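Morning run. Coffee first, then this:
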Amino acid sequence: MSGLTRSLDGLVRITRGISRLAARLIGLALMAVVLFIGIEILLRKLAGHSLPGVHEYSGYVLAVLSAWGLSHTLLERAHIRIDVLHGRLPALSQHTLNVISLLALNLVAWMIALNAYPVLTKSLANASTANTPLATPLWIPQLLWATGYCWFAFTTSVLGLRVLAALFQRDTKTLDALIGMDNGELGEASTREESR
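And here it is:
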């Protein structure tokens, strides 16, 4: 294994760890939103009062969740993939399709990240606030949202570099473990290693 490959493996591990931490934090935020929505429903039914901002902040949490969750989902190979033809193709064709799909995803991720930035800068320049009684400065949720998409673009790039290195080394085990449809031995080994 070359030094570049070891460095890329380390970078994939770090990226996976940060993505897992972000997924756990946003999962806790989502559970808090569910709890507050439940309390708000009970208060409205029983006392005729409601908690201000619950719906507004739940929308922010869902937007941030969608942005930050993409990286973790990609690294865990949990995105929905429709396997109509893929499983019937020879291994070389499967690997080719997997690499093409990752590179296409990388392109899309960078397009989203680059288009999220102007939204944030416009809100900062205009000192935009939510059109709600709480008047939340929009740059706060937009910063978290845009950062999530930037992290996703970075993650697809890191994974893309590692996959290209595996492709040039003809390392099919690594290709299967990182972007294949089935759980490869390398993926299981890295999961066991990280759980220690």
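The helical segments are 3-46, 54-75, 91-126, 139-168, 172-179, 185-195. Good start to the day.
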